[in-house]
Amino acid sequence: MILFLVTKNNGSEEDAEDVFQDSLIIVFKKIKANEFDLSCSFRTYLYSVSRNLWLQKLSKRKQFSREFSDVETYITMTDYALSEKNQDEMEKFRLYQQHFLTLNDDCQKVLMLFMKKVSLRDIAIEMGYKTEKYAKTRKYLCKEELKKRIINDPKCQKFLSDD
Hints:
Layout: H1 2-7, H2 13-32, H3 42-69, H4 71-75, H5 79-83, H6 87-100, H7 105-115, H8 120-127, H9 132-151, H10 157-160
Helix pairs in contact: 2-3, 3-9, 7-9, 8-9
């Protein structure tokens, strides 16, 4: 039932396993601290804990996704910005760079042109697209693919975890 909950709400089987394990840990800690008060079936209780955990994780993913949605910030970051002592920002930038380089050449070029403030009309011409609308669609799809790759990277979990 937890697998169904997670996979039907943008999660993987691995996410479901993590949620299940985390839920069991919460239940165990409540029992150990004498804070466990069961007023429904254990199955219902465990499902409720799992659901709450999954909603929290989804919320964190959404927040993290918003941070990476401003692709311009991460493409145009300079060495100066990276020399700052903010380790998390440096790690996020490295994660971004790593996944940017895994995009196909077309996506890399479209995003780079966009970051250089090239107009959609000029991007369409440069890329050989028939319309500006298609250039806009390609830019959007490339950004979404990049965000998906970053969010699904296990290294990203550091930024999504409760710790």
